[in-house]
Design brief:
CATH topology: Immunoglobulin-like
Strand content: over 45%
Largest sheet: 4 strands, antiparallel
Structural class: mainly beta
Radius of gyration: 17 Å
Number of domains: 1
């Protein structure tokens, strides 16, 4: 089973959210540290920690992992992560390059069977 998580950073500018549309200096690119956890029907868990960096405007962030040799039954995939870097601080006003956003935990259940 392939699990993919994709995010595109947005910034608040005056009255609306905008995708990053400017080339950022080296070191300011958005980064994402993400953990994909698979809980199998037996209760066994497998986790994969992945770090990705946005390369080009609009700096999409994509984490992907293939979980192999799965048991039959219902599996739960949980995604957790932190996005850092980028042009704006969390107050949306300061150009610090030190933005830090904790991504809300998300989960999905998938059933594998005949």
């Amino acid at each position: 089973m392939t699990v993919t998580y994709e995010a595109v950073p947005y910034i608040w500018d005056s009255v609306a959210w905008f995708g990053e549309n400017n080339k950022l200096a080296s070191g300011w690119e958005p980064k994402m540290d993400i953990t994909l956890t698979l809980t199998q029907p037996s209760g066994n868990t497998r986790s994969e920690s992945i770090s990705v960096v946005g390369k080009d405007v609009p700096y999409p962030l994509k984490a992907e992992h293939v979980f192999r040799y799965l048991e039959m039954g219902t599996h739960k995939v949980t995604v957790r992560g932190v996005k850092t870097g980028g042009r704006r601080a969390t107050d949306g006003r300061n150009n610090t390059g030190n933005d830090r956003v904790v991504l809300g935990e998300m989960s999905l259940e998938v059933t594998i069977g005949d």
